[in-house]
Specification:
The chain contains no helices and 10 strands. The protein is mostly beta strands. The strands form 2 sheets. Strands 2-10-9-4-5-6 form a 6-stranded mixed sheet, with no helix packed on it. The model has no long low-confidence stretch (mean pLDDT 95).
């Protein structure tokens, strides 16, 4: 039972950067794995990046080399640093605990051409 509150989205030009935050509530935060997903209008939710309790990270091929997921266990927060943004990165970004099947409300990221 983890609640997520995402923030940090906005409107940026192609090539710009944003850092998203996911504040999570839960007593087992440090032992959990988390992931960022995104969903564009008319498309299915897609996995973007994940981070394990060991801080090992994984990325989808579409964002690898441009995005970086990290965590601050002291703040119960997961971050997603997004660089070299492309218009196809546009969507609602949401955070989840791996395997939970639930997400936060999400934060909108819009990348203009």
């Amino acid at each position: 039972q983890v609640q997520f509150v995402e923030s940090g989205g906005g409107l940026v030009q192609a090539g710009g950067s944003l850092r998203l935050s996911c504040a999570a509530a839960g007593s087992t935060f440090s032992s959990n794995a988390f992931a960022w997903f995104r969903q564009a209008p008319g498309k299915r939710r897609e996995w973007v990046a994940s981070i394990l309790s060991s801080s090992t990270t994984n990325y989808s091929s579409s964002v690898k080399g441009r995005f970086a997921i990290s965590r601050d266990n002291a703040k119960n927060t997961v971050y997603l640093q997004m660089n070299s943004l492309k218009p196809e990165d546009t969507g609602v970004y949401s955070c989840t605990r791996l395997g939970s099947g639930t997400w936060g409300q999400g934060t909108q990221v819009t990348v203009s051409s």
